[in-house]
């Protein structure tokens, strides 16, 4: 699983270099699949429930799970690339959001603040805390900035399957829900 995670991180770092005005998310999807193949890995979501792509690519107002396409990215666009890497039967899942060139101040703030919410949630992901502690960290940070939460979009356990228990909600009450234990692997 660690190796799948290393490949995933390396791929996202490469995507950051590939993204530029004029590039399409379809181009990125093809490059990702080749990148993974060169490392003996595969895109787990390709073929999952009939999904035809190696990545999900969400541009601007598309919140999550957009399809890669041939629309050229432009200066100021925001794109989230979400992928699941399979290396030797073990999975790693991550979505990174990238700004194409200079961003409006409001978009830069949004990206920074949502990343802050993620880091606050990660800080709660320790043995002895609960799933509610993670969700509460996200919710409190969102409220601080007067942002909403897309409640149907949740994290989950991951290992040898894309979606494993438990569900990890982006909201919650502290000290409620499943207790986190050593060895659990979740997406937030």
From TrEMBL:
It catalyses: Release of N-terminal amino acids, preferentially methionine, from peptides and arylamides. It comes from the Eukaryota. One of its GO terms (biological process) is proteolysis. It is an enzyme of class 3 (hydrolase). Signal peptide: none annotated. Pfam families: Peptidase_M24 (PF00557). Keywords: Aminopeptidase, Hydrolase, Metal-binding, Protease. Its EC number is 3.4.11.18. Its cofactor is Co(2+); Zn(2+); Mn(2+); Fe(2+). Residues 1-188 form the Peptidase M24 domain. SUPFAM superfamilies: Creatinase/aminopeptidase (SSF55920). InterPro entries: Creatinase/aminopeptidase-like, Pept_M24, Pept_M24_MAP, Pept_M24A_MAP1. The keyword Metal-binding applies. GO terms for molecular function: initiator methionyl aminopeptidase activity; metal ion binding; metalloaminopeptidase activity. Belongs to the peptidase M24A family. Cotranslationally removes the N-terminal methionine from nascent proteins. The N-terminal methionine is often cleaved when the second residue in the primary sequence is small and uncharged (Met-Ala-, Cys, Gly, Pro, Ser, Thr, or Val). This is Methionine aminopeptidase. The lineage of its organism: Eukaryota, Metazoa, Ecdysozoa, Nematoda, Chromadorea.
């Amino acid at each position: 699983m660690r190796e799948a995670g290393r490949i995933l991180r390396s791929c996202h770092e490469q995507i950051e270099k590939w993204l530029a005005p004029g590039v399409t998310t379809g181009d990125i999807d093809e490059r990702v699949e080749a990148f993974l193949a060169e490392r003996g890995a595969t895109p787990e979501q390709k073929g999952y429930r009939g999904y035809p792509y190696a990545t999900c690519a969400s541009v601007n107002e598309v919140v999550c799970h957009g399809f890669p396409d041939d629309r050229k990215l432009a200066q100021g666009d925001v794109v989230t690339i979400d992928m699941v890497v399979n290396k030797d039967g073990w999975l790693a899942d991550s979505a990174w959001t990238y700004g194409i060139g200079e961003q409006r101040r409001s978009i830069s703030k949004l990206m920074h603040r949502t990343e802050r919410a993620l880091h606050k949630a990660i800080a709660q992901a320790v043995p002895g805390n609960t799933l509610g502690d993670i969700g509460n960290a996200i919710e409190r940070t969102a409220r601080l900035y007067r942002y909403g939460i897309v409640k149907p979009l949740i994290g989950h356990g991951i290992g040898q399957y894309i979606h494993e228990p438990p569900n990890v909600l982006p909201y919650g009450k502290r000290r409620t829900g499943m207790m986190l234990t050593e060895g659990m692997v979740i997406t937030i």
